[in-house]
Design goal:
elongated; single chain; 274 residues; 5 helices
Length: 274
């Protein structure tokens, strides 16, 4: 079976192929708005960071991205760690809607020291996001709450604050702090070690992980608009595992609480009609 990183590389490759195939539907600056016309943005990212959550080993991986909006709607600023969302409601300036994301996995394939410990399967999650702009197009507050769709992998809640700063006509800089919380099911799946696993491993002791604050961090990004259809983004996402996520022997003995990911994304936008 292919590893999680391999699967992501394939997904990113498919996204990049779709970017190129969409060249015949490239955006035109004088395109007219229509109710049945949409702007689709496909992206493919390459990241270099921990092989799994809590790992000290670094590896390359790929990640696809997707966004859409009606033709005529202004594109909204976003951060590289935003998951795929769509705003359905605007309540007092708070944008609310569904959000979906991907979760990475973990196995002995990623690190031989994980032999004997239970694997963590990759997963999809879905939930609700809410965001508010205290300063329009500059300062954004965002929250995402997402539940795993299978396997009892638990609930995550991510909170972020971002400042967006255009520089000239083509550059957009963004930066802001992060905080992530997880429930007991997520923490046990990713950071707990059962007595049976500890005996099989021989490297770590049994550990019970409880829900609560999982990590704090900071994300920075720079986006360059090549044309109305193409853009490139480089970014750095740093998170420090805390609480039981940091105290777990998976992190403290075999890995590291410092989790840093650098990445680059190529985005392609094109117009389609239904």
């Amino acid at each position: 079976m292919a590893s999680w990183d391999t699967a992501l590389f394939r997904a990113a490759a498919v996204s990049l192929l779709l970017l190129l195939l969409g060249s015949r539907s490239a955006l035109s600056q004088d395109a007219k708005s229509s109710d049945n016309q949409w702007i689709i943005t496909l992206g493919g990212s390459v990241e270099y960071g921990p092989s799994y959550e809590g790992s000290k080993h670094l590896s390359f991986s790929g990640m696809p991205s997707f966004d859409f909006r009606r033709l005529g709607e202004a594109p909204e600023y976003g951060a590289p760690d935003d998951n795929i969302d769509y705003g359905l409601f605007d309540i007092g300036g708070v944008d609310i809607g569904p959000v979906v994301g991907l979760r990475g996995g973990r196995s002995a394939f990623d690190d031989s020291e994980l032999q004997g410990l239970h694997s963590v399967q990759w997963n999809l999650d879905a939930g609700v996001f809410a965001q508010y702009w205290p300063i329009e197009d500059r300062l954004r507050v965002r929250a995402e709450t997402r539940q795993a769709l299978w396997g009892g992998d638990g609930l995550l809640a991510d909170l972020s604050l971002d400042w967006f700063q255009p520089v000239g006509d083509r550059w957009l800089l963004s930066a802001g702090p992060r905080m992530s919380l997880a429930n007991g099911a997520y923490m046990r799946n990713n950071f707990a070690v059962s007595a049976e696993d500890a005996a099989k491993s021989g490297r770590v002791e049994a550990f019970d992980a409880n829900g609560g604050l999982k990590s704090i961090g900071f994300t920075v990004a720079a986006t360059y608009t090549v044309s109305p259809a193409w853009s490139v983004q480089i970014y750095d996402k740093y998170n420090r595992l805390v609480g039981d996520a940091a105290d777990s022997p998976i992190t403290s003995r075999l890995g590291s609480a410092d989790q840093n990911v650098i990445g680059i994304t190529l985005n392609r936008s094109f117009q389609i009609g239904f």
